[in-house]
Every structure is written in structure tokens, then in C-alpha cells.
Specification:
Blueprint (H helix, E strand, L loop, with lengths): L32 H9 L3 H19 L6 H17 L10 H23 L28 H11 L4 H12 L4 H7 L5 H19 L3
Amino acid sequence: MTNPDLHKNLKIEVYAPEKSSDERPDAFASKGDLEIWRNFKRGNESAFTFIYRQYFKKLFTFSSQFIQDKELIKDCIQDLFIELRKNRKNLSDTTSIKLYLFKSIKRKVIVCQKRLQTNSLNIQKYFGHDFKVTLSAEHLMINRQLEEQKLRQLNMALKKLTKRQGEVIYYYFYENMDYGQVMEMMDLKNIKSARNLVYKALKVLKSEVDPQ
């Protein structure tokens, strides 16, 4: 369930009216992304509510990798959903709502970040974590019984990744994106480029954890 504190001071209303021809938001949990998205585009408010509730916290966590100001992040997410609702009829279809929203919010927060770099006297207040990710045992796709020592070594190694390497690890392991989605998120030329970037990041990690 989304933390209600994250929604504090948000102006956008996201709810399903009690008396409505729309399905309840929960009814969309069993539907595919394309069907949910098309319902939203047709004006179904319950579909909009479901998308908002499903992805707000994920968008907040993701945006925090770029900027630290929580209120600014909430403003960006609010603006995104307002724009989506306003322009819904003109939106393209998508089979991955998460990918669509992640790409959209990334563009928005990067614009905010650049504006802050130009105008703010206290830049460090707003800078994010540069994708210095930390993995837990639950995030590991292989060998979930990895001993604590190895896990500590891995997390130390993660700190040595470049921003771009950390970003690709975030998408690939944290968000379980495939190479095609990684390519789209990072504006890479092709899937091979995405695969190579993941490989290079993993190679750095392996050299730090098991230097042989």
C-alpha cells in the first residue's frame, strides 16, 4: 500500500466515485497493461486511479535517484499525472505502463534537475544518489542464500560503479527490466548496447567481489 504521507499536499484527485459505470480500481489488478491503459485513454477514472495507486510509490522511489527534494518530486509526479489525464486521448498505446511512466518521469525530473543546477545556490540539497544502489538478498536473481560477507562485498563494489553503470544495474535488477526496456530508458542505440552495458557493470562488480 502506498504511504499516505507521500500524497500530502497533492492537488490531484484520484478516486473512483461510488456511483459510476466504471469498474472499481481493484478490478484492474487482473488485467493486462494494454487493456488498463486503453481503458484509461477512453476516460475510465477507475483505470486512472488504479495506475496512480499502483505506480506512485515506484515513481517516487525512482525519481529520488535523480533529486532529493521530496516536495519537488511530488510536484513532478503530480504534474505528470495531470498531463496524462489531460492528454489521455492523444497518448500512444503501451504494453508496459511502468516503462511508459518511468520514461516520462525521468524526462521531467531531469529538466527540474538542470533548472536547479542553473538557479539554485544550494545544489547538494537537490542532487539524488547517482544510482549508488544497494542490493539485499531479495534483489539477487541468483544464489539467494548468499552469505552476509559476500553481500557486504557486493554492496561495497556497487559504490564503485559509475553513475551510468549504477543506473543500468538499477533497471536490470531492481526493476527487472529486460534489455529492450533498458535500451529505451537509457536512450541506447540497440539491445546489444544495453546488453553490453549490463555486462560491463557486472564485470566491475565481479572484479571487486572476486578479484582473480
